[in-house]
Specification:
heterodimer; A: alpha/beta; four-stranded mixed beta sheet; 8 helices; 10 strands; 25% strand; globular; B: alpha/beta; fumarase; five-stranded mixed β-barrel; 6 helices; 27% strand; binds iron/sulfur cluster
Chain lengths: 280, 183
């Protein structure tokens, strides 16, 4: 058994909230950079240049990459040999988000009740997912999610007979409906299989995967490539102002499913595909 | 075409703007997003005055991140405009000259834009750090309790936008992707 204090969890989460909102991961930054040389539309190139300038300013002047600093989605992989001490884990996570958003000059975008809509003032609560894994480490991923793109995400409960063509149509439908609202170029996270909620979670997790690498499953890696090409053929382009860079990556995660179903979730993310990882 | 215009706007001047034009705005503009629009609509429904005049003004759909010490504002990029579609026609009819946001608008907004010879500009979504550099002052002028959603008066200097819907109702989001779509 290894002990980890909740205060250390809080501190790590606060730091990760601030880091994720000011710096993209190297794989994200590099696909964005590469898009500048492949984009065919002059307006598209202009937008991509501005995004690259924006990233530079964000890091140098500590101004969040985007003013929508998101709702904090926190993934925790907790080693089965870890013992958490010092208080309630969920409260420790929320305290981390609170400190990160208040001390880090991040926007508070969370309302306490979806219908009454009063701002909580500190961006809590987080959306927390825990998973028990082997080992004695604790791995934390903070993924602040902006809602311009979250609002354009979809779950489709397809029939097995719809097959891969149905999946392709679902992805293209979600992306074309998202259009300029989702701040293209987008990253498209797709979850195929599982149950209704499992597919959505697979899609969200797909956004965390390295965007420069394909799936380890060859048929899925092929599908990712094909879909990226098809999406970029839609012409939506950077900022939705026309162009050949509508998506930077399509990441697809899969899971076994029921004989009667083919759930597909498409979690759209903007070019500000944020996540930061820490380990305790 | 490229234009440099000052805000509040001159309605004659904005009639010449066409989709695809790059425009740099300098002067005074106002921010308002979901919650502020809802309150303005409630004020209008109750026959009360709006906290700011719409006449010739520009509304920027934006809720900034907090400013660090010594800075006028934090990150300050556009939010999705369609969420304001329900409220925009009434404001346009009261003289609102321009909206700045991102994303497509409803047919009702388009009709109101044409009817009032107004304009809808897009600022680049997700470029909030860069756009904040064109804002030199910010002051909350109404609904302070709404936090980031309060109405702010911004002083802007060469704030970069693109015309996505002009006073004739042409829509760049409809036309531009067609040019690059693979058939
Ligand atoms: S969709 Fe992304 S880039 Fe666009 S405003 Fe929201 S967080 Fe920012």
């Amino acid at each position: 058994m290894r002990s980890i204090q909740t205060e250390d969890i809080t501190k790590t989460i606060a730091e990760l909230c601030i880091k994720a909102n000011h710096y993209l991961t190297p794989d994200m930054a590099s696909v964005l950079e590469n898009a500048r040389s492949s984009e065919r539309s002059p307006v598209g190139c202009h937008v991509l240049n501005q995004l690259s300038e924006n990233l530079k300013i964000a890091g140098e002047d500590m101004i969040p990459i985007c003013q929508d600093t998101g709702m904090a989605v926190v993934f925790m992989e907790i080693g089965q040999d870890v013992h958490i001490e010092g208080g309630d884990l969920t409260e420790a996570v929320n305290e981390g988000v609170r400190r990160g958003y208040v001390d880090g000059y991040l926007r508070k975008s969370v309302v306490s009740d979806p219908l009454l809509r009063e701002n909580t003032g500190d961006n809590t609560p987080a959306v927390l997912y825990t998973e028990i894994v082997r080992g004695d480490k604790l791995r934390i991923t903070v993924a602040p999610k902006g809602f311009g793109s979250e609002n354009m995400s979809r779950v489709f409960m397809l029939k097995p007979a719809d097959g891969v063509e149905g999946v392709k149509n679902a992805i293209l439908t979600a992306v074309s409906d998202a259009g300029p609202n989702a701040c293209p170029p987008m990253v498209v996270g797709v979850g195929i299989g599982g149950t209704f909620e499992k597919a959505a979670l697979l899609a969200k997790k797909a956004l965390l995967r390295d965007v420069s690498k394909g799936s380890e499953l060859s048929h899925i890696a092929d599908l990712e490539k094909e879909m990226l090409e098809k999406i970029n053929g839609l012409g939506i382009g950077p900022g939705g102002l026309g162009g050949t860079t509508t998506a930077l990556a399509v990441n697809i995660n899969t899971y076994p499913t029921h004989i009667a179903g083919l759930p597909v979730a498409v979690n759209i993310c903007c070019h500000v595909n944020r996540h930061a990882v820490g380990e305790l | 075409m490229e234009y440099h215009i000052s805000a509040p706007l001159n309605k004659e001047e904005i009639k010449k703007l066409r989709i695809g034009d790059t425009v740099y705005i300098s002067g005074t503009i106002y921010t308002a997003r979901d919650a502020a629009h809802k309150r303005m609509q409630e004020a209008l429904d109750a026959g009360k005055e709006l906290p700011i005049s719409m006449e010739n003004n520009v509304i920027y759909y934006m809720g900034p991140s907090p400013a660090r010490e010594g800075r006028p504002i934090g990150s300050a990029g556009p939010t999705t405009a369609s969420r304001m579609d329900k409220y925009a026609p009434a404001l346009l009819d009261l003289g609102l000259a321009a909206m700045v946001g991102k994303g497509k608008r409803s047919p009702k907004v388009k009709e109101a834009v044409i009817r009032n010879k107004a304009v809808y500009f897009a600022a680049i979504g997700g470029a909030g750090a860069l756009l904040s550099k064109a804002i030199t002052a910010s002051e909350v002028v109404a609904y302070e309790d709404l936090g980031t959603e309060a109405i702010r008066k911004l002083t802007v200097n060469e704030f970069p936008v693109i015309v996505v819907m002009d006073c004739e109702g042409n829509d760049l989001y409809e036309t531009a992707p067609k040019e690059y779509a693979c058939q």
